[in-house]
């Protein structure tokens, strides 16, 4: 079975880079996953956790062997990283990034890297680092792609296939519009989370306030627990759009302050807020209980799924969910889900003993 991509490089192997790398490995999408990071500890963890096959502390000739490169360092580091990679990149290679800001990043990278298309998966977590990476993070996520008139058809097609193969939904939006939109739906909420925490941190009653924090404060401020460096870069690099959004918020807050003296008007605002919040599209992954997945490479022969199910059944391992990931001429891949980590590890042993290949 020939994977979709040859050697793939992930530059910055933290939460996002690690999750993309795991998706590539679990879905057999790359011949080999290479990781580069400025932090040697991140690379050590990536190897230990099976996130990458090969790791590098320096860019060099190995970059020229990649058919696809994904930049996943904080936004403020992406332009420099692109400059360092440009001399080594193969002229036919595909490039993308997962940065949370697009206009400046795209302007910097599209003249540097061969077949480049900017991207931004609208999924994440308040936990940083490769140790928190998992392929499910990107599953069913909307993944913004930001083509310009300079984007090659090869980049447009190749990066879209990557996103779809990782189980996400590509959505094309021009870079500047992307930045205006995420300023309101992602960056302003982050800044608000910082503001609410700041209010508490500077209060003379800080300890008591923390003790009283129930769901409201916790839900509204979760994103403040993410990587401060990543988030700082995100809001600073999008400061023009974000300042406009802050201005709009200032006006809304003043309006709501006024409505405190007009209960009927405030009720209408509260009802409108409820309608808006309740009509958010349901993202499947967030409603499912946590599952522990295993991907198995399966020869394309009659009876293989039955053989796997029987081997697991006889070992007393219960399969909670099953999905056919790829069907190719020679072989395909199955995703099996188990309720617990222990069951998944037992399943891994049973299937390895039965001669199946697992990543
Ligand atoms: N965290 C999220 O929720 C989220 C969601 C979507 C997109 N993003 C974007 O993904 C990118 C990575 O964020 P993350 O959440 O994975 O952060 P992270 O802190 O988990 O990982 C960042 C990694 O990049 C490495 N790094 C830093 N500077 C580097 C450089 N110059 N060269 C190579 N590696 C470098 C760090 O050592 C770290 O391993 C950012 O551009 C961010 O805007 C984040
Ligand atoms: O923590 C999460 O659940 C996120 O989705 C993180 C989040 C967001 O809040 O918008 C943060 C930054 C991004 O670039 C994308 C996603």
Explain what this protein looks like in three dimensions:
- It comes from Thermus parvatiensis.
- It is an enzyme of class 1 (oxidoreductase).
- Its EC number is 1.3.1.12.
- It catalyses: prephenate + NAD(+) = 3-(4-hydroxyphenyl)pyruvate + CO2 + NADH.
- Residues 232-262 form a coiled coil.
- The chain has 359 residues and is an alpha/beta fold.
- The protein folds into 3 domains: 5-173, Rossmann fold; 178-278, 6-phosphogluconate dehydrogenase C-terminal like domain (6-phosphogluconate dehydrogenase C-terminal fold, Orthogonal Bundle), CATH 1.10.3660.10; 289-353, ACT domain (Alpha-Beta Plaits, 2-Layer Sandwich).
- Helix content is 46%, strand content 18%.
- The protein has helices at residues 15-26, 40-48, 78-85, 103-109, 153-165, 175-201, 206-212, 215-221, 228-237, 239-259, 263-278, 284-287, 304-314, 341-353, and strands spanning 5-11, 30-36, 54-56, 66-71, 94-97, 115-121, 142-146, 169-172, 292-299, 321-327, 331-338.
- The strands form 2 sheets. It has an 8-stranded mixed beta sheet with strand order 3-2-1-4-5-6-7-8, with helices on both faces. It has a 3-stranded antiparallel beta sheet with strand order 9-11-10, with helices on one face.
- It is globular and about 70 Å long.
- The mean pLDDT is 93.
- The structure holds nicotinamide-adenine-dinucleotide and prephenic acid.
- Residues 100, 122-126, 186, 223 line the site of prephenic acid.
